[in-house]
From TrEMBL:
Transmembrane segments: 688-711
Organism field: Equus przewalskii
PANTHER family attached to this UniProt entry: CADHERIN-87A, PROTOCADHERIN BETA-15
Protein name: Protocadherin beta-15 isoform X4
Taxonomic placement: Eukaryota, Metazoa, Chordata, Craniata, Vertebrata
UniProt xrefs under Pfam families: Cadherin, Cadherin_2, Cadherin_C_2
UniProt subcellular location: Membrane
Gene assigned in the entry: LOC103550682
Amino acid sequence: MEAGGDRFPKQRQVLILFLLLGVALAGWESRRYSVTEETERGYFVANLAKDMGLGVRELAARGARVVSEDNEPRLQLDLQTGELILNEKLDREEMCGPTDPCVMHFQVLLKNPLGVFRAELLVKDINDHSPEFPEREMTLKIPESSPPGTVFPLKKAQDLDVGNNNIQNYDINPNSHFHVSTRDRGDGRKYPELVLDKELDREEQAELRLTLTALDGGSPPRSGTAQVRILVLDVNDNAPEFAQTLYQVQVPENSPVGALVVKVSARDSDSGTNGEISYFLFYTSQEISTTFELNTLSGEVRLIKKLDFETISSYELDIEASDGGGLSGKCSVAIEVVDVNDNSPELTISSLTSPIPENSPETEVALFRIRDRDSGDNGRMTCSIQDDLPFLLKPSEENFYTLVTSGALDRESRAEYNITITVTDMGTPRLKTEHNITVLVSDVNDNAPAFTQTSYTLWVRENNSPALHIGSVSATDTDAGANAQLTYSLLPPQDPHLPLASLVSINADNGHLFALRSLDYEALQAFEFGVGATDRGSPALSSQARVRVLVLDANDNSPFVLYPLQNGSAPCTELVPRAAEAGYLVTKVVAVDGDSGQNAWLSYQLLKATEPGLFGVWPHNGEVRTARLLSERDAPKHRLLVQVRDNGEPPRSASVTLHVLLVDGFSQPYLPLPEAAAEQARADPLTVYLVVALASVSSLFLLSVLLFVAVRLCRRSRAASLGGCSVPEGPFPGHLVDVSGTGTLSQSYQYEVRLIYTVF
């Protein structure tokens, strides 16, 4: 019930809009032009550009074209001259038959904006058809007792021309018994009647032959003839008489074949054969003889073919009743065909625009015309489309409609619309026609690419092979075609010191990222850069994302011993008093590892000793301590081999050799080795050089420690800011820095050392 209630207000809105738009477009008055039938093709009819008040260029620019009611291309508009010319010879009789005047309605359609120029073409008749009788010879049976003045109807001739060119008069050859009278009915048709001037005598002349001539009013006039054979009969003084001289009936056009149309009835007062009546169609055309059938005995008229109101809306039959004596009577039957709603509406598309660019304002999609061949309410129509579509129907003149968009379309929301135009008539039952139109929406580059993530984090292990695929970025574009084809690129780095072009590259087609060279965790632990995705639309749109690359550490650095130095000079000797107790700190091995995490966790182990069990190394801090009390039996010189090992996989290690000298005390600046005591007296000149060397080595050691600390602090700062720090290179490689702070250098220790250099 709600749907039906909503429909009628919508219909009223469409009708109101039709009236308003009709007033707005009624800029031209209807014109009438004329042309004579059988005029040659190409004949000039009118200058439409002048009559419409438009220039020839404007006619062409607005796509002017001629449309007739029956869609036959009888007229042609020359867009170069603005002239309306005949496209073919016109036959008035073929176009309009007996209808007079013969008028062909046509329209001139204009677009941008829509305009309809209405006009009529009057096709004038020429006298190109002669009168023709339905039979070359007609027979009349006339009783000899017929008095003068008796009228005998004759079959009329037919002329396809109209007006003055149609039949105007009938004549008969001169004779002593008859003359012809031309009778004019109310419908304009003329019928011949034979009038008896002198009584007949069968015994004197039983048969007469006359020539009947039909003349039209053309110039020059045309004529047609038929023979009239008159048989003189004996007396039969009562002719059949019809109950009605005119029968008027209405027959629905959907009546079945065989349906009874009318039954005529006549009576004859005579008896015998003179009273036996037979019925005949007095005058019949091909259309009548193929549509109706008359029963000669009963007078019933029945259909032998389906009726079509749209083709012929009425018929007139002349029926003759004849008795056995040759007398006859005549009546007419007027048959009106009643229209039923048997024709569905017709829809003709004049123009269609597809695809339509998205984001466009109100755009004309299609121009079409609707028509219903029925009449009355059966021919009145309404036109509609689905309610859930962004389109509107705008009516105009002559049942033309324009389908337009109600607003901008979005291809990303919907790229194709299937529109069903429904035309429904107002008959009972209602008939409708549906026409489907597919409208495509073309893409406009109105959507920028969008990355799947605003930031990406990638991990790559150091010492990678060059051109290694380290990850990918991906973006999507909801546009189509070239507007959705993306190109990836690296954005200039925010840090000007970051050599991004030598670190990574990106595949412009798929966003794959590659490391261009081997990365070193100890030199660069992380870096960040931007990537862009640009489509190929016009103008091109783009978006950005951030990528952070974290370098994973690999165990590629062996532990490095800072103390004691292993520089190829004279070995460092540690002095231990013999009075030292167990656990006495002899020295501490200081080592670092350039890796991080567990790769930089160091452990210490005593691999080899001159006297096993005398000394021990603490595994976590590298401190070398006495394992027991010293005795006089212990050798004075000891050589210890200490291994430093990290916790990586596979583990890496380094070793250092310690020289330990057992002494009785530390009262002298230094104690000479026992084997060098004998040579001490000879070594006095050399003592000065040894002292200088000792001072140099000590200074070099101190400088190395300071450089190590500086490099360590700089590396920590660079790891935190993804930047670099320039530090002068010292005697220790810069990559051997324990970033995690797990090296043993950070542990404080204090012990007394006396260095004795042995000179051989």
